[in-house]
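User: Predict the complex.
Assistant: Input components as received:
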Amino acid sequence: MMQFLECRQGNELNESLSGSVTVTLKDLAKELGVHPSTVSRILHSGTEGARGAASVATAERVRDLARKRGYSPDPQATGLRTGRTHLLGVIVPRLSDLVLAIMYEGIEEAAAELGYSTFVMNSRDNPEEQRRKTDTMLARRVDGLIIGDAHLNSGLLRDLTVRKVPFVLVNRSVPGYPSATCDDVLGGQLVADHLWSEGHRDVAVIAGERYASTAVDRTAGFVDRWRFLGGQIPPEAVVWSHFDTAGGREATGTILTNCTPRPTALFAVNDFAAIGAMGALRSRGLSVGHHIAVVGFNDTSLASELPIPLSSVRSPMLDIGRTAVQLLKRVLDGEHVESVKLKPVLCVRESSAWTETLAAVPGPSESD
Amino acid sequence: MMQFLECRQGNELNESLSGSVTVTLKDLAKELGVHPSTVSRILHSGTEGARGAASVATAERVRDLARKRGYSPDPQATGLRTGRTHLLGVIVPRLSDLVLAIMYEGIEEAAAELGYSTFVMNSRDNPEEQRRKTDTMLARRVDGLIIGDAHLNSGLLRDLTVRKVPFVLVNRSVPGYPSATCDDVLGGQLVADHLWSEGHRDVAVIAGERYASTAVDRTAGFVDRWRFLGGQIPPEAVVWSHFDTAGGREATGTILTNCTPRPTALFAVNDFAAIGAMGALRSRGLSVGHHIAVVGFNDTSLASELPIPLSSVRSPMLDIGRTAVQLLKRVLDGEHVESVKLKPVLCVRESSAWTETLAAVPGPSESD
DNA sequence: CTGAAAGCGCTTACAG
DNA sequence: CTGAAAGCGCTTACAG
């Protein structure tokens, strides 16, 4: 299918520009004096040769003209005929979340490479919107869905399975469904190892939303590892929260109120919550990286740019997105697929390192 | 068209769930013993009554069954027949830029309200990718384009006009084409007024990319206003730069090296550059908000959350996106449209206020 | 090797 | 008020 698109580029650009009229198979056929089905057959046989679809001579004439006229098949017509749209639906909590935005970039890239286009919609983590957006996507006849906002124990995934809608999860996992995610348990473990080895013994976790596997797994990875290392984490030291700065600020307040002795380190399951925590600590006169360590998760672009650079677990967001597309492709091909967990890396910075060399890691850029 | 979608929601959900088979017009017609064209006509007449399309009784039977079966028309077929896909293409520099992500949320919302779905692609501000993505969108037969990455003096817009592709710009403007943007000149003026009234007389501008109207207009608004107020800005005090933190850091270095006396205030045309500037200043021992003031632009979510909260010009990003859709809709309806500039507001915070009350403004949230 | 036909699901004049 | 036909642009068996 890609060979058609090329027609609109490069040297032929001027010619395709001049024609604002769209050229159809029939146009090509008429101009060459052959039947439209012949043109179609040739354009669908391998790029070189005719693969038994036509004589080499005819094939060449057809292909030349298609290129010259900037022919690109109408996806509506193709879709109607073949029953496949080459459209993928992507649902995320919100695209203004850097993490999802970058995963989506990976999705878009990988999808384009496979000849798919992608829709993306925001659900704001609202179950009703999740259903509505899903239905809008299906009404558009997408071939499959990539779901980035799955809630643990949501009925939606079961319903989709019943409806036989092909889908995979990205970013968040749910047991029983294929997903492409960061190895969040490992991420939590890395933080535990780091803080333990820095000598911390009293720590607390800003745990995020209970419905998100990212929050649950990162927290579990941290807590289990901490106990394995011999540490203790009382119940009041794990505070579920919203994912944003306000959530981090609030959770920090709760922790400082309820935990005695006061923790010397905080693990926030994402960077925004960590930044909120830093603000709350600062406004109480606690110096981050001195009185108290803070570690975030995702290593979003700003972590390394903060005045006190934030230690954070870097997850391979772009690759996670790309992997999701590959998984979905295999699902569409009828294969059975297993979930994929990509490895994270801990980036230690000033916010949690008294002695370490700082790892300066540049982040994505802004460009409005 | 919206009435069809409703069929998949609410009380009928269970029934539409049970059928993973897609129901067609013909199915409905057969079940009711009428002709498909009759069904089509009824479903296209106003929601209540039959508007002369059919008897009220038939109309009711048809609509009831459509709802019951969860009928939703195949957009491929409709598009093929009517020549309009109700698809909009959106091109942005990168979705991981918060500013564009939020504008896109506005676009998606407003488009959905009008019955359109949107594709979005990243061009990374690369002219070649801009053309390629545009062509991919057109190959998908979008009804129109919303361009968020326009470069001043790029040939692409002219080519699209020649090709009679309906489009509007968003985020960045280019003279001669309809756009929905922030009033960036006004934004620059607001910053000039603020810094002037704070008593600054030696200032510098981190001006952004020359190809982007946002950068050019914000800079011009600031510089012109500054001179109008009686201030001076030597050429070396305006440094063009990349939009990211690295760009801001670099530009700050240049400014500190070349400008004497050292400026007491820096205006960066976007928040990321401002944050880079803050880092560069800090690493030279200059305290932001004390030795030197910094003001950014866009008021992205982190501006208010930084340890030293960043003054920033807040632009109505969501509304800008929504406005772009409305403009494009009117273009598609054959109307002539004028560009729209939405008003920004300056949020003064610690980074530039010695005496002001701080305006705490919460930002968007993260939710992975 | 190529043509001709059927049909994907819809809409829209045109009859009656 | 309703039916029947044509056709949007493609693909895919089926002939020959």
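Chain B touches chain A through 86 residues (CB under 8 Å).
Let me know if you want any component modeled separately.
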